[in-house]
Amino acid sequence: xxxxxxxxxxxxxxxxxxxxxxxxxxxxxxxxxxxxxxxxxxxxxxxxxxxxxxxxxxxxxxxxxxxxxxxxxxxxxxxxxxxxxxxxxxxxxxxxxxxxxxxxxxxxxxxxxxxxxxxxxxxxxxxxxxxxxxxxxxxxxxxxxxxxxxxxxxxxxxxxxxxxxxxxxxxx
Amino acid sequence: xxxxxxxxxxxxxxxxxxxxxxxxxxxxxxxxxxxxxxxxxxxxxxxxxxxxxxxxxxxxxxxxxxxxxxxxxxxxxxxxxxxxxxxxxxxxxxxxxxxxxxxxxxxxxxxxxxxxxxxxxxxxxxxxxxxxxxxxxxxxxxxxxxxxxxxxxxxxxxxxxxxxxxxxxxxxxxxxxxxxxxxxxxxxxxxxxxxxxxxxxxxxxxxxxxxxxxxxxxxxxxxxxxxxxxxxxxxxxxxxxxxxxxxxxxxxxxxxxxxxxxxxxxxxxxxxxxxxxxxxxxxxxxxxxxxxxxxxxxxxx
Lengths: 172, 301
Fold this sequence. Notes:
The complex is a heterodimer.
Chain A lengths: L1 H50 L3 H9 L4 H13 L8 H12 L5 H13 L5 H48 L1
Chain B lengths: L1 E3 L11 H8 L2 H9 L7 E5 L5 E4 L2 E4 L7 H12 L3 H8 L3 E4 L2 E12 L2 E14 L9 H9 L5 E5 L5 H14 L4 E5 L20 E5 L3 H12 L3 E4 L5 H12 L3 E7 L9 H8 L5 E8 L2 E8 L3
Parallel strand pairs in B: 8-12, 8-13, 9-10, 9-11, 11-12
Antiparallel strand pairs in B: 1-10, 2-3, 2-7, 3-4, 5-6, 6-7, 13-14
């Protein structure tokens, strides 16, 4: 009987620890995604300034250098741009943002979607400014997250461990 | 984009007409095909008016529902690949180039430092459908080849087919072995797209696209050693000045200009070019209903 209780306690504790690690891992994913997006936007801004090429060309070219989900996102947007005329660019971009980046916060996704409403409608300078603005916003979110992450990680792991212990005590 | 046109491929494979049709919303395409799409020269879209095709010089409505601004925006967005920044150069001159099609744009423009940077509202679009018409000015081409090339100015009113005639003359001269440099600012003469398809400009033509004509002329002179330089629609003063420099270098000139009959003009770009002695021949295009008449005349008469 005691062995069963010990096994149960171990399972509960491991479950709660796993839960804590999962939340921390989601934060890490968001952190990495923000880094990838900032890098992709930086590349896009540079390419746009240098080549002034149409976006489908730029997206494809940058997607070859971008990493992770940002790369897939740019490829998908380029692919979906074949439907221009039936759908607007803003609609395509916004839908892909919602689809590709569930790990981002709602405000971050909204900011990225707003970028899609601006891109493609203005002259070079205005588009460069819009890209720089979005990149700066994501940069701020990234530095906030980097600052908060160690404390948040300790808090989440501590809370999940405590929750596991309380459950074990109650069950015993 | 500097490239050697070696059009050994069958140019008939390239269908700019399908490309133009593809710009329209799905529901419009069938309607356009029913009213003589195969012969259409232009698609005319005006805000609040029924869309129409230009057929043999007159417009025919192909759908009764009026055009909305959102539809105009979407067509323009498709044509620019949602990249207005890449189309600004053409837009500031009133058109957008889409894979060899020229789309005229009207509306309320936004200007920055005196140049058009975008359109706040769109009111009209005119999609011109380029076509290759081999043999349209055979007699003129034969005469140019028979007596040796002399500087020739192609003139006609808007929509008369100057670009089509110029394209045909370029092809004939180039296929006869003369080296032609083609300054194709609006990409209408060669109509190249990203797949590499283009109209046949002959075996000895070197084409430069997307560069203002005056600069393109100098680039061709420096880099490609042409025997004849071809330019479509000389309108700006600097284009005329570039032609004078080309003339001074001993290179032949084949150009087109908007003018019903420059001989009867007292001013204007066409007459100025003639008076400066840059051209010794005039190819005048007259539109008679759906038909065109081509007359090659010496200058001065």
